[in-house]
Amino acid sequence: MYVHSLVCMWVFHCMDGLKCRGSINYTGVFQLEMKLTLILSVSGMNAAVRATVRVGLYTGAKVFFVHEGYQGLVDGGDNIRPATWESVSMMLQLGGTVIGSARCKDFQTREGRLKAALNLVKRGITNLCVIGGDGSLTGANQFRTEWSGLLGELISKGKITAEEAKCASHLNIVGMVGSIDNDFCGTDMTIGTDSALHRIVEVVDSITTTAQSHQRAFILEVMGRHCGYLALVTALSCGADWVFIPEMPPDDGWEDHLCRRLMETRNRGSRLNVIIVAEGAMGRDGKPITCDQIKELVTKRLGYDTRATILGHVQRGGTPSAFDRILGSRMGVEAVMALLEATPDTPACVVSLSGNQAVRLPLMECVQVTKDVTIAMKEGKYDEAVKLRGKSFENNWNTYKLLAHVHLPETKSNINVAVLNVGAPCAGMNAAVRAAVRIGIIQGHSMLAVHDGFEGLAQGKIESITWNSVGGWTGKGGSVLGTKRTLPAKHIEEISLNIAKYNIHALVIIGGFEAFSGGLELVHARQKYEELCIPLVVIPATVSNNVPGSDFSIGADTALNTITSTCDRIKQSAAGTKRRVFIIETMGGYCGYLATMSGLAAGADAAYIFEEKFNIRDLEVNVEHLVEKMKTTVKRGLILRNENSNANYTTDFIFNLYSEEGKGIFDCRKNVLGHMQQGGTPTPFDRNFATKMGAKSVLWLTEKLKECYRHGRIFANSQDSACVLGMRKRGLMFQPLTELKEQTDFEHRIPRTAWWLKLRPILKILAKYKINLDTSEHTHMEHIISKRTPVTLSGKMKE
């Protein structure tokens, strides 16, 4: 019987892609011309390789590595090797690619592709998982397109039999996108982008300290020859004065505008200027805009001490971020599912990320829209180019324009908006405050800072906060305003009096579950205190990620990276000593988000959480699993436990149990990570997320205030005047606090449902547990449509 097999390829990503021109005739022969420019690898791809291999083996498929990309596919031999469970161990923390990548001129020829087809057929391989950029994926799709013609030629040359050709009658292809540029349309994030942002922001943080000391202007060039995503998000993450991206060249006369902007920043009291340049930045005339050109301009016109730095390939290397590891793992699982569900009529697809959802899109539709971006830029249709990049890119650009293209209003709105932090501190809170304050000032409002949360609001710790007050806050951890867990119910009268005294018209409450609960208490008190009838918005910010109404909270990504990097070090220690199991306790209260997601990112053997009940038999199964694992070449174990997962099965209990049962087989160590998870510099994700949330909250309050203005005063008592701003599946949305009340477990301070619980089976499968994977919820093929492309590329397109 013929056995389905998978090939997990690491394939190069071409900056210019594979330029294809040709025609298809009825014999299936495709005349193809390809232009190859560069071969690249990115952090996070090993996570995708690991997940593809292990889930493929879990489903009963044979899985092969193709070493050295398409060159290995053409050369065959030892380049195509069976993959085993253990062969993908200790890969998660490694950057680059463990199975290699290489230039391949041979695959550009018909003869080369014929050799590749022969190597696949002889090994009974009919499913191909390609990890790379649009060039690699386009090449794979063309290989699939001419597959029947290649089989026919191999039969005619006597290299394969008719029976072999029948068994390999069609080739299924699924792609995962790996590119630090995030230049592939159809996905919000490509694997490797977040890790690259980590490298960039680390450099920017280091540069800003010296720039501030010496009152310098710094120009930083980041990668992005055709896409400005890295430059744009970096600008948002560090509060840059200006960003140059290829999708939106500056208007003519930008030199005067730039110099005026830099002077205005200095006149407001800033001691530094930061300018971010994408390597593909250009003017409206199509000529490149370089770091040296900008440096010369700033030095000559303004006389500022100016430095330029080009980051180069440092952006591609390093340890993958937690986000990229989880993204790669999720995409790897989805890729295997897509291959196993594919039919001969299924178009080649790419697995993508839309908001928080894994989606499948026809590969060539995505490639076409990606090409359409380049066409739009060449035609000078820059607004269209930004839209074609997708909602995520467009939202980032709009937020940047709001915060950077500043024209402070001459007239005030007579509106006072107060901002406060509530609950435990977390990284990213300050970025949200900064964005809220500055957008409020741009709207003409007077912004008020409340120190020490609701307690400070009751005690009158309220003062005006200005544009300069929040300068440099984006990269600061903790809470500059101060934050406490105190809820407002006990101080409701004092709070209402101070709201009246300071004439506060709206509240921005940034915090965790206490912010959510406190917001509800203010809403319930409206019946008695008319002063509380003002619009308010809650922005989730907590490492626990337990605020109802949002899939993500500000600060959770930073905490997740802290845990993951600690687990990497611990695993490295265990790998050196052999036969050692570490039990790690994470924060999160009763919410198991951190334990589960860090388990995925670090490759844990188990993660104990409150939401998924466990008993002594489950603990016994885990111990038995580790005993068996110690018989393999992977002689180490990593167990994560959420701090409140079980009142009786404590970290000490589990440590003692494992130590006793593992005697003579493995020894144990335990580590309680504690408050180090709340501190640290915010990650690029948290900075960007917080900035967009802070900006969006104040814009929403501005519109809500207009609706609530009656008879010369603000009066807001409707349910939709007090909302949580949260990320739900594919976008940011406002949800009334009172509606979310029914979805909340107040005793344990968690939402009643959580999206990430569906990822727990993946954690167990990747740890080699024999469980049943629920595939009742299929990810259906969706479509991405370019308004520039009315013709169908692959099947029927939806309008």
From TrEMBL:
Residues 42-338, 416-700 form the Phosphofructokinase domain. It is found in: Cytoplasm. Keywords: Acetylation, Allosteric enzyme, ATP-binding, Cytoplasm, Glycolysis, Glycoprotein, Hydroxylation, Kinase, Magnesium, Metal-binding, Nucleotide-binding, Phosphoprotein, Transferase. Its EC number is 2.7.1.11. One of its GO terms (cellular component) is membrane. The active site is at D181 (proton acceptor). It is an enzyme of class 2 (transferase). InterPro entries: 6-Pfructokinase_euk (IPR009161), ATP_PFK (IPR022953), PFK_vert-type (IPR041914), Phosphofructokinase_CS (IPR015912), Phosphofructokinase_dom (IPR000023), PKF_sf (IPR035966). GO terms for molecular function: 6-phosphofructokinase activity; AMP binding; ATP binding; fructose-6-phosphate binding; identical protein binding; metal ion binding; monosaccharide binding. Residues 1-405 are annotated as: N-terminal catalytic PFK domain 1. Residues 416-799 are annotated as: C-terminal regulatory PFK domain 2. Allosterically activated by ADP, AMP, or fructose 2,6-bisphosphate, and allosterically inhibited by ATP or citrate. Its cofactor is Mg(2+). Beta-D-fructose 2,6-bisphosphate binds at residues 485, 542-546, 580, 587-589, 643, 669, 675-678, 749. ATP binds at R103, C104, G133, D134, G135, S136. Pathway: Carbohydrate degradation; glycolysis; D-glyceraldehyde 3-phosphate and glycerone phosphate from D-glucose: step 3/4. Substrate binds at S179, I180, D181, R216, M223, G224, R225, E279, R307, H313, V314, Q315, R316. One of its GO terms (biological process) is fructose 6-phosphate metabolic process. Pfam families: PFK (PF00365). Catalyzes the phosphorylation of D-fructose 6-phosphate to fructose 1,6-bisphosphate by ATP, the first committing step of glycolysis. HAMAP family: Phosphofructokinase_I_E. Homo- and heterotetramers. Belongs to the phosphofructokinase type A (PFKA) family. ATP-dependent PFK group I subfamily. Eukaryotic two domain clade "E" sub-subfamily. Belongs to the phosphofructokinase type A (PFKA) family. ATP-dependent PFK group I subfamily. Eukaryotic two domain clade 'E' sub-subfamily. This is ATP-dependent 6-phosphofructokinase. It comes from Pygocentrus nattereri (Red-bellied piranha).
